[in-house]
Amino acid sequence: MTLRNTVFTPLLAFAAMLLTSCMGVPDNVKVVDGVDANQYLGTWYEIARLDHSFERGLVNVTANYSLREDGGIKVINRGFNPETKKWKEAEGKAYFVDPKNADGSYTGKLKVSFFGPFYGAYNIIELDKPYYNYVMLCGPDKSYFWILSRTPQLPYPIKQHLIAKAKELGFATDKLIYVTQSTDIVDYEAGRHVRH
């Protein structure tokens, strides 16, 4: 074995371990079964999240899912930064990890990527079936958590139910950020035709 192979093998093992850890499901958390991919597509409004640098300070956050030609899902995450008065947008792709169920539905375990070949876990852990009005998501560990809704506001009893369930599962619900969804935001990009 050459020196190069000696170094490369541990790096491969480390990379494999890192990718596996990024694709897991947190302890005592189960993903939803029987997800209809077509019904899941469309726009979702972010209701609550745990803080992360890539969304920090953003309001009016939405996630839009559409079908890709390769059978995966095109992901567009968008949010408004009130300080810079600019929209921030990220485009990614997602794929269901497990094979289709007999009825054509999926297990709610996906891998999502915004950075080339690197994927992270996107786990659907609560879903309003059969209506698909709200969803609760987490990443590979309990530091990644979101509640999304088909509408900018989620009725209080439903929101409280989801938060209580998340707390029971061990998520830090006391640190949740409740996302402002306002129609008062001006799209400054649309105003570029104005002469200064």
List the keywords.
single chain, 196 residues, alpha+beta, eight-stranded antiparallel β-barrel, 19% helix, 34% strand, disordered N terminus, disordered C terminus
General description of the model:
The chain is built from 3 helices and 9 strands. 23% of the residues are buried. Helix content is 19%, strand content 34%. It has an 8-stranded antiparallel β-barrel. The protein has 196 residues and is an alpha+beta fold. It has helices at 3-22, 37-40, 156-169, and strands spanning 42-49, 59-67, 73-81, 86-96, 109-115, 118-127, 134-138, 145-149, 177-178.
Classify the secondary structure makeup into a structural class: alpha+beta
Number of strands: 9
Instruction: Determine the strand fraction and express it as a percent band.
Output: 25-35%
Query: For the report, how would you describe the main beta sheet?
Result: 8 strands, antiparallel, barrel
Taking strands numbered 1, 2, ... along the chain, how are they ordered across the largest sheet? Answer: 1-2-3-4-5-6-7-8
* Spatial extent as radius of gyration: 19 Å
Q: pLDDT average, as an integer?
A: 87
